[in-house]
Amino acid sequence: MIGRICGKLIDKQPPFLLVDVQGVGYEIEAPASTLASCPALGEQITLHTHLIVREDAHVLCGFISEQERQLFRHLIKVNSVGAKLALGILSGMSADGFVRCVQEKDTAGLTQLPGVGKKTAERLIIEMRDRLKDMNISAITQSVTGNKPGTATDNNAMQDAISGLVSLGYKPQEASRLLQHVDLNGLNSEAMIKSALKIAATAG
C-alpha cells in the first residue's frame, strides 16, 4: 500500500496530478477539494494516498489531508459507492456540507451530487451516520474545507461556481465535471465560471 507521496508537483490535468518523486512520476487522481489546495507547479507537495487495485488497473488517489482520506475510505465502504463516486462526492460538496446532509437526513441535498440518486442518498445517510460518529467531524470539516490560508476560500468559491453554473442551466454533475478541467488556484467563483464556460464552448 502506498500511503503517502512527497515530491514535486510537475503537472495538473484535473482530476489528475503528476508528482515527481526522485525521478519517478506518480499519476494521482484527486478530488476538486485537493486540487484547489495544491501549490503551484514546481513546488513540493505532500499527499495522503489510497491505492486501489483492480484487475485492469492500479489507481492511486491522493488527498491534501489525512482527514480527507479518512472520509474517502469511509465512503467507499458504503454499499454501491466506489472510488469514482466517492471522489465525485468530495468534488461536488464540501466536507461540512456533506456532514450536514447526513446529520439532517437531507436526501435532496445529496442528490445534487453527480451520480447520487435518491436510493444512494438514503444509503449514504444510513451508513455514514454511524461512521461519522466514530470520526472527529470537526477535524474533518476544518481540514478538508481548509485550515490553511486560502483553502477555505478556494473551496467556498468552487461551491459558489457550481451553484452559478446550475443557475445557468447546467446540471450539478455537469457543472462539477466542467470545473474539474479548470485550474482553480487563486480564482474566485466568477473567474471559475468564466473558465468553465470557455471549456464548455470549446467542447461544444
Descriptive overview:
The chain is an alpha+beta fold. It folds into three domains: 4-63, OB fold (Dihydrolipoamide Acetyltransferase, E2P) (Beta Barrel), CATH 2.40.50.140; 66-142, 5' to 3' exonuclease, C-terminal subdomain (DNA polymerase, domain 1, Orthogonal Bundle); 149-203, Ubiquitin-associated (UBA) domain (Helicase, Ruva Protein, domain 3, Orthogonal Bundle), CATH 1.10.8.10. 50% of the residues lie in helices and 19% in strands. It has helices spanning 32-35, 66-75, 83-92, 95-103, 107-110, 118-133, 137-145, 151-167, 172-179, 189-203, and strands at residues 4-13, 16-21, 24-29, 44-53, 58-63. It has a five-stranded antiparallel β-sheet with strand order 3-2-1-4-5. Strand 2 and strand 3 (24-29) form a beta hairpin. Helix 2 (66-75) packs across helix 7, helix 4 packs across helix 6 and helix 8 (151-167) packs across helix 9. The chain is globular, with a radius of gyration of 16 Å. The relative contact order is 0.12.
Features:
single chain, 204 residues, alpha+beta, OB fold (Dihydrolipoamide Acetyltransferase, E2P), DNA polymerase, domain 1, Helicase, Ruva Protein, domain 3, 19% strand, globular
Radius of gyration over C-alpha positions, nearest whole angstrom = 16 Å
The assigned CATH architecture of the largest domain is: Orthogonal Bundle
Q: What is the total domain count?
A: 3
Total strands: 5
Structural class: alpha+beta
Oligomer: single chain
CATH topology of the largest domain: DNA polymerase, domain 1
Largest sheet: 5 strands, antiparallel
Cross-sheet strand order for the largest sheet: 3-2-1-4-5
Name of the CATH homologous superfamily of the largest domain: 5' to 3' exonuclease, C-terminal subdomain
Distance between the first and last residues' Cα: 41 Å
Shape label? globular
pLDDT averaged over residues: 83
N-to-C series of helices and strands:
EEEHEEHHHHHHHHH
Report strand %. Answer: 15-25%
Helical content (DSSP H or I, runs of 4+):
40-55%
Question: Which parts are unreliable, with pLDDT below 50 for 5 consecutive residues or more?
Answer: 143-153
Report the total helices: 10
Name the CATH class of the largest domain. Mainly Alpha
